[in-house]
Amino acid sequence: MRLLIACILALTCAPADAAPATAKASTTTSYSERMALLSKLVGDWRGSGWMIMPNGKRESFVSQEIVSRRLSGNALLVEGQHRSATGQLIHDAMAMITWNERTGEHRMRTALSSGFGGDFPLKVTPGGFTWRMSCRQAAQASSAMVR
């Protein structure tokens, strides 16, 4: 009975568009090439910036972002912490950046310490990348330059 349940779970948890192993192997090169466009991001980054908080107040911060390769180089894990001038943690976030072969675009899936998060398109630009996100209350457009 345990084996049968495991087989049923394996079948129901597989994505509907899952391809056979041989087909997936042929797309690995495409994934790797697309993710290589973001290879300059890998590292430990520190800098400053600002954001508009939900109360409308502009909050300056000092940030640290650690970007590492995951899933055999087919994903980037981004861990970021942003602190106020007094050292208070004001934004704690994590993201995974991948290439979506089906839609032909990079995607960024985010998770915040507040419990919020989302899945957003990410556009690679000559010097970095941009992304947009919106919800009922607000919209955000962000860009990052890598030098």
Give an overview of the whole structure:
This protein is an alpha+beta fold. The protein has helices at residues 2-13, 21-36; strands spanning 43-52, 58-70, 75-83, 89-100, 105-112, 117-125, 128-134, 139-145. Strands 1-2-3-4-5-6-7-8 form an eight-stranded antiparallel sheet. The N and C termini lie far apart (57 Å).
Q: Record the strand order, biggest sheet.
A: 1-2-3-4-5-6-7-8
Category by helix and strand content? alpha+beta
* % residues in beta strands: over 45%
Shape: globular
CATH architecture of one domain: Beta Barrel
| Topology, number of strands | 8
Based on CA atoms alone, the radius of gyration comes out at 18 Å
Would you identify the regions where 5 or more consecutive residues have pLDDT less than 50?
Answer: 1-27
Number of helices: 2
Full CATH superfamily name of one domain:
Calycin beta-barrel core domain
Taking the alpha carbons of the first and last residues, their distance comes to: 57 Å
What's the level 1 CATH class of one domain? Mainly Beta
Overall pLDDT score: 75
The percentage helix is: 10-25%
Determine the oligomeric state from the structure.
Answer: single chain
**Sequence of secondary-structure elements:** HHEEEEEEEE
CATH fold node name of one domain: Lipocalin
Which sheet architecture does the biggest sheet show?
A: 8 strands, antiparallel
